[in-house]
Amino acid sequence: MSLRPGHRLGYIGGHHSADPDQDFSFVPAGNGSLPEDRLSKLCVHFAVTLVDSNCHVYGVDLLPRAPKAVASDSTNGAKRTIEEYGFLFDVITRANGVPPVSGSWDGGGSNLHVNGCMLGLLSSDTMASIPFFKHCSKKPIDTIPCWIYKGILYENEHWVGGNNDSNHVFKRFTHHLCCGVRVVEWGSLVVNLSCLVRGGLSIRALAVEDIQSDADMARRLNCGYLSEDWSCFGTMVAQFAASLLISAWTSSDQFGFEEATSNALMAYYMVLLQTQQSMAKYGKEWEKHFLPSQNVRALLDLAGHAVLAAHFWPHGTPWRPRCRQEAPIERHFGQVKSFSRGTPSLKDGGLRIANDPFKATTGLCNVG
To answer: How many other C-beta atoms are found inside a 10 Å radius of the C-beta of residue 267?
Structure first.
């Protein structure tokens, strides 16, 4: 079925807006070129995958964002992203008869409302104005102490969850462990990743030369670089806390349902306790001696998504959390961009469509 029935062939390049008079995302062919200040420089891609496999990724939607100079709350940012999520979830639910099991995203600010909604933190008034989510209710878990997250149930029956992606969370986590603006303390230990260099960690990875590198992030969390020297004890604790959460997501194939849940909860309380201790010891300066509040929140949310999934997981659905992350979508999106050097734009994609329609169609079906 079509996402938006009635749309015909037109130009791509203008930004989208909820206001029809300001919407330039679809300009019928023959209307000439768009003004430069209406061209989109950023597009958000939405894709659908299976919950138990990373083999197939299907691009279903592309949302061109307005430039910051003309953007407003209704055309850009977190509000527009969750509205598009709600629209897509509604289309998929009507097409399949049941809603999607889960969504995934990174830690960008535009995903703030989506992440909060899937954790049951978004206000009911805000949800009431969004397609699909206006039919959802919140269900708390009263048996877990110090727990603010709630499950989201579509029509009080079907649970819908999410994931703010462990790779993105831990790239930031390891960056903060060795950046120059804070000295991270965990309990009575100081975290110092430089001790890993003696075990073979590259200077590139230690210095975070590429903050987007998943491989360097994994190296900084690799206990194989640890030695028995006293200076490694703090790093060992940080790696242990990270491993607990990673076991619930990226490494979930090696852990059972109950093990992953237990590990996620242990990491959750480790982060909470150390945050409390840092606040008690350093007051307003606590972030300089632990992690920035944004990263603390991301770690807690990642554990929250794992525990909510374990609690509300549909009976009979395969349990493979690794397949519900953003990583497979990014790999497929990389394939779409692989034909262009540097930073490709919509213009480059349009030329590819004109020159090679079959490959372009295949590529656009694998957008992440």
So the answer is: 24
**Residue corresponding to tokens 């790239």:** 171
Range of the domain at 276: 166-322
Residues 311, 220: one domain? yes
pLDDT digits (tens, 9 = 90+) for 89-125: 999 999 889 999 999 998 888 899 999 999 999 999 9
214 and 314 housed in the same domain: yes
| 346, pLDDT greater than 90 | no
pLDDT tens per residue, range 133-178: 999 999 999 999 999 999 999 999 999 999 999 999 999 999 999 8
Residues 6+ apart with CB under 8 A from 93: 99, 100, 132, 154
| 261 inside domain | yes
Give dist(CA 113, CA 97) in Å, integer.
25
Q: How many domains does the chain have?
A: 3
68 and 98 belong to one structural domain: no
Do 174 and 296 belong to one domain? yes
Cα–Cα dist 120/359, whole Å? 41
Give percent of the chain with pLDDT exceeding 70: 79
Handedness of CA 130, 131, 135, 137 (dihedral sign): negative
Question: Do 122 and 186 sit in the same domain of this protein?
Answer: no
